[in-house]
Amino acid sequence: MKKEWFFDRFCGEQIAIYAEDGKIVEVGVESEKQGDVLGNIYKGKVANVVQGMQAAFVSCGMERNCYLPLDEGAAIFSSYDGSGKVSSAELKAGDEILVQVVKTPRGTKGAKVSCELSFVGKNLIYLPRTDFLGISRKIVEEPLRETLLKEADKLRERGEGFIVRTAAASATRRALKLESEYLKRMYRATLETAKTAPVGAAVYREYDLPVKVMRDSLGDADTKVYVGDGELYEKVVRLARMRQDLGEKRIIRYTGERTMFNFFGLDEQILALTAPQIGLKNGAHLIIDRTEAMTVFDVNTGKYTGESDLESTVFETNLLAAKEIARQVRLRNISGIIAVDFIDMSEETHRLSVTAALEEALSADRAKSRVLPMSDLCVTLFTRKRMSGELSSFLLKPCSHCTRQGYVLSDIYMAMRIRTAIMCCFADGYSAAIVELNRALMNKILTERYFAADLAGPWREKRIYLIPHTAFPEEKFSLRGDNAQVLSLPDTAQILY
């Protein structure tokens, strides 16, 4: 199996794509300005405590106050300097506490935070305030599990904890010790920063997208890494040099005239992730419906009529659907509660087999999932841990013409598609590109300076003209190339920057 990672950055975004045999398996997107708040630690101030909800709302410098549950076990809340401890019953408005984001903001909901801090390494997760030892479920050999747990126990002081990650299965005792010391230094540095930091400041930030991917996902000797941006390539190479299991030779700088995603045939696969309908190999299809509370998958036989009886046709379709649903939630990074309306099956053995197929397909995902038994109505509920923001928040935005009930392609994704078309135009030998597009989108591209890096680099000697149209939908644009020295353009045309 050919395994490849692709890293690129443009329009203020960093994108990481993992593909197997040319088929996208996982996509990560992160804004360079905002970053991903998941895992960040903030010096927060309690805005109010709602005992009826057993929750506190904490100001952390974000758009909305963060939600802090007070009933998760015997929650103990430490003051910002790591000294005194306060029980949930004593927590009050105005208290300053350290909190870590465990769920990112979504829709109208603020981030969910915890006072049980954690620091993630390649082999270990350090829990400075939690007396706990745990180990990855993917390490299945019982003697190895016992050995690793004993080693982790030796590394902790009283009141501390460690979770042994999957990568630790091949780590040496010395590597575990060095990593544990490094994670403890990070915690002490966080406490020191918090002493003088203002309320709302991030006193610890999780690594950015490329570093997290290299920490958590790379290590397979057969995996190649392609990088489409020069500055990002230098960063990835520096990180690779620090990894004995990675190596600089596996990092390949892509320098083609077309975008890297276009060259490797990934563009159309990314576009397909914006569609609410997914076809299955046998002609059946899935429909995805997103709500604020959950994501719903509906399984339909579509054109597939089967070759024998109805029960066999339905069973075969549901098996295919279970595997594709697991793939789609990972691809689109769908999290929270997920409901699946499978096609009705009368036989109990078939319902159990479909549930088992879904569980097995989800087991390859880094994000933890929990699948509930299928009901008599053939509806299955499962949860998936939120790793970061859903991919749809990058690709889509609420439609302004249908009372925000539907979705259209987002401005940043439209800019990405236009950038790809411009680079293909220049790769085909044209010196000028004329883009006709929606007026509001053009204004966004100009004000946000999405293409500033390209204009300062490979587009320096090129000419790009934008022609706005009020009648164009936001998702429509056209592009043509030209080599004429003098172009005949409407008065509304504007040269890019």
Please tell me the overall pLDDT.
89
**Uncertain segments of ≥5 residues (pLDDT<50)?**
73-84
Strand segment count: 29
Structural class: alpha+beta
Helix content: 25-40%
Outline the biggest β-sheet: 6 strands, antiparallel
Count of helical stretches = 12
Percentage of β-strand residues: 25-35%
How many distinct folded domains?
5
Global morphology:
globular
Radius of gyration (CA) equals: 25 Å
Task: Please report the distance between the alpha carbons of the first and last residues.
Answer: 45 Å
What does this entry look like structurally?
The structure is a single chain. Helices cover 28% and strands 29% of the residues. The strands form 7 sheets. Strands 4, 5, 6, 9, 10 and 15 form a 6-stranded antiparallel sheet that branches. Strands 18-19-20-21-23-22 form a 6-stranded mixed sheet, with helices on one face. The protein has a 5-stranded mixed sheet with strand order 3-2-1-16-17. The protein has 12 helices and 29 strands. The protein has 5 domains: 95 residues, eRF1 domain 2 (Nucleotidyltransferase, domain 5); 74 residues, Nucleic acid-binding proteins (OB fold (Dihydrolipoamide Acetyltransferase, E2P)); 86 residues, no CATH class; 111 residues; 85 residues, no CATH class. About 2% of the residues have low confidence. The longest helix is centred in the middle third of the chain and has 24 residues. The two termini are 45 Å apart.
